[in-house]
Amino acid sequence: MVEKLLEKFGIKHVFSTPYHPQTNGLVERFNRTLCESLSKLVIQTNEWDRYIAPVLFAYQTSKHSTTKISPFYLVNGREAKLPVDNLSDNLEYINQRLLSLIDDLPHVREEAKIKVREILYYDAAKEKQWTGKLDSKWKGPFYIHEIRQNSAYKLRSMEGKVLRTPVNESLLKLYYDRQNWALIIAV
């Protein structure tokens, strides 16, 4: 069937050599981007296929860093209409809200500081211990056990074991219960 399609459209089918990913460099690079995007959304690795359409739409509507043109525009001759495009109707409200947020910034920064007993994830990608492409690159969750100098934190596992090595703040992110988060996305 594939051969008939190729013949009908005058396509010459060229096979790449096995175990030489450079042959299909563009495809391999896109597959890497796709896997990175899916890994940020997937909760259980066997559900990755549910997120392909939204991830592809996000990719197709994002402008390429070099060409400054989105793939959607190249295919359809126009940009996709997104919900964010309707914001222009509310510019006055948005400007007022922005000024209000700027006024609240000092208070928000103080609230955003990590505190003892907060629950966080630790970036395990630096340790290269994650294996699967869609597996989480974050360890945890952990509690903040102690706040040290220079943005360093001692972490404690949920079972109570304190990690020996302090972790820099840049390797931490707040923990959110992903089971409840999945329900919000599904709605």
Q: What does the model show?
A:
Among the domains are: 1-61, no CATH class; 117-174, SH3 type barrels (Roll). Strands 4-3-2-1-5 form a five-stranded antiparallel beta sheet, with no helix packed on it. The chain is 37% helix and 14% strand. With 187 residues, it is of the alpha+beta class. Residues 182-187 have low confidence and may be disordered.
A few lines on this structure:
By secondary structure, this protein is of the alpha+beta class. The protein is 37% helix and 14% strand.
- Count the E strands: 5
Provide the structure class.
Answer: alpha+beta
Mean pLDDT: 81
Characterize the main sheet. 5 strands, antiparallel
Q: What shape does the CA trace take?
A: flat
Oligomer: single chain
Compute the CA-based radius of gyration. 23 Å
The largest sheet has its strands arranged as: 4-3-2-1-5
Residues in helices, as a percent range: 25-40%
- Spans of at least 5 consecutive residues with low confidence: 182-187
The tally of helices reads 6
CA(first)-CA(last) distance: 40 Å
Query: What is the N-to-C order of secondary-structure elements (H for helix, E for strand)?
Result: HHHHHEEEEEH
List the helices and strands and how they pair.
Blueprint: H1 2-8, H2 25-41, H3 52-60, H4 71-76, H5 91-112, E1 119-123, E2 138-147, E3 152-157, E4 167-168, E5 172-174, H6 178-186
Antiparallel strand pairs: 1-2, 1-5, 2-3, 3-4
Question: Which key features would you list for this structure?
Answer:
disordered C terminus, 6 helices, 37% helix, five-stranded antiparallel β-sheet, SH3 type barrels, 187 residues, alpha+beta, RNaseH-like_sf
